[in-house]
Amino acid sequence: MGNRKNYLPYDGEVRYYGKILTSAEADGYLHKMLEKIEWQNDEAIIFGRRIVTKRMVAWYGERPFSYTYSKVTKSALPWTQELLELKARVEGATGETFNSCLLNLYHSGEEGMAWHSDGEADLKKDGAIGSLSLGAERKFSFKHKKNKERVDILLEHGSLLVMAGTTQTYWWHRLPPTKKVLDARINLTFRTIEEKIAEI
Ligand SMILES: O=C(O)CCC(=O)C(=O)O
Ligand SMILES: [Fe+2]
Fold this sequence. Notes:
InterPro entries: AlkB-like (IPR027450), AlkB-like_sf (IPR037151), ALKBH3 (IPR032854), Oxoglu/Fe-dep_dioxygenase_dom (IPR005123)
Shape: globular
CATH superfamily: Alpha-ketoglutarate-dependent dioxygenase AlkB-like
Domain Fe2OG dioxygenase: 97-194
Number of strands: 14
Distance between the termini: 39 Å
Cofactor: Fe(2+)
Bound molecules: 2-oxoglutaric acid, fe (ii) ion
EC number: 1.14.11.-
Structural class: alpha+beta
CATH topology: Jelly Rolls
CATH class: Mainly Beta
Radius of gyration: 16 Å
GO molecular function: catalytic activity, acting on DNA; demethylase activity; dioxygenase activity; hydrolase activity; metal ion binding; oxidoreductase activity, acting on paired donors, with incorporation or reduction of molecular oxygen
């Protein structure tokens, strides 16, 4: 993945692979995911209050990992056939391996995700995150945590984006809401959860 253009000027690596699925494959997976994934409304604790977002989420993995995201802990469901197929495609394209996947469903452009970085304690430090997009094309933005430099990328139907190295330490990212997009989008972020060995 090192010879592909890095979209970040410094302090991290963001590589965009473009469409890694044909449009027929991407359509097929979009419909299967809408139907078969156990979508739940996302909850977050913001300024001490529990809020429920319209965006829906699901969490799958090779073991029932518990994963804390926005201060809410979830337990991973076992891989589905489609998720295993997509994981293999993302691993084949990147040469990385992943053991879990967080899925987001945005019903329209009015739903997005606020500025954040994915440096949760459970995630492997500086591990690659493979982000596969299905459905409506959306803009994805990065902002440097210190100097506020911005980088925008358009994420296409069936495309893959990889965030690696120190990206999560130095950059925030978000999916900005937009009134221009009426269709749904699903995003799958393949991740590596560290196996914690209990201290005796
Ligand atoms: O929807 C996206 O493209 C990004 C989702 C994201 O940043 C996340 O799940 O952490
Ligand atoms: Fe993220």
